[in-house]
Amino acid sequence: MILTVDVGNTRIKAAVFEGNTVLENFVFEKNELEKKIEKILEKFPNCSDLVVASVGNIDKQSFLTFENELKIHFLTNEDVYPFVNKYATPKTLGIDRMVLASGATLQFPKQNRLVIDVGTCITYDFIDENDNYLGGAISPGLRLRYEALHNYTAKLPLLAFEAPELYIGNSTTQAIHSGVVNGFVYEIDGFIDEYRANFSNFIIILTGGDAVFLAKRLKNTIFANSNFLLESLNQTFQYKIDND
Ligand SMILES: Nc1ncnc2c1ncn2[C@@H]1O[C@H](COP(=O)(O)OP(=O)(O)OP(=O)(O)O)[C@@H](O)[C@H]1O
Ligand SMILES: CC(C)(CO)[C@@H](O)C(=O)NCCC(=O)O
Ligand SMILES: [K+]
């Protein structure tokens, strides 16, 4: 049994795996980390390894308190991955993007793949059919767009996400919802169109906190898999064991 932990910029997500099967998923805040891991290990005492991919600034020590109970692994950019990293700055490529690329390569062999993660940031990652990781894009996520409008202006309120009815927003509130939500959707459809124009055949994997909402609104039909990062983390760890 493997406990995988994804430390994002906003929240922490975790899942317990038996082979390739998810037994249970967890979401929690950073300040709850030790308490929650303790609870998970009480429920699943057969966990032998804890695998962490962290882009957030969390103290490693919080994980090391469990060192006597199971083996702790922090994935890094120096681990073995199933793709060739063609990013010009491979050392600064986010570990979450490395893991997503790894999962896409292992789960969808010999084809072009585009991974779109709609979390705190939106990330686009492209791995071609010869398993070259080429890069992608980083832009602000849905929540971040609402917050940025509020934080960097005098007059714009901080709104909670709401699906706009119109693209012509007829009030301050509607204009913000239209700009943020429609802008988010148009951006992603626009990127997908750009990839389609350049690569005849590729699979799109959509994941992250806003994936389910987004999938329904894209003009391009894509299935969302909210668990793709944790599944990929589990597979990347298996790959590391087999290839180290
Ligand atoms: N309870 C919640 N807290 C924060 N964001 C949420 C919540 N529920 C849904 N969301 C949506 O999820 C998005 C954040 O995605 P996610 O939770 O994947 O981010 P994260 O934890 O920072 O991970 P990462 O850094 O890997 O993107 C926000 O844009 C927000 O709209
Ligand atoms: C882009 C984020 C913040 C997305 O979580 C993360 O992958 C990260 O911190 N990346 C480092 C920069 C890069 O990937 O090139
Ligand atoms: K993300």
Automatic annotation (TrEMBL):
ATP binds at D6, V7, G8, N9, T10, R11, I12, K13, T120. Pathway: Cofactor biosynthesis; coenzyme A biosynthesis; CoA from (R)-pantothenate: step 1/5. Its cofactor is K(+); NH4(+). Its EC number is 2.7.1.33. It is found in: Cytoplasm. It is an enzyme of class 2 (transferase). The keyword Cytoplasm applies. It comes from the Bacteria. A monovalent cation. Ammonium or potassium. Its main location: cytoplasm. K(+) binds at D117. Belongs to the type III pantothenate kinase family. Catalyzes the phosphorylation of pantothenate (Pan), the first step in CoA biosynthesis. This is Type III pantothenate kinase. The gene is coaX.
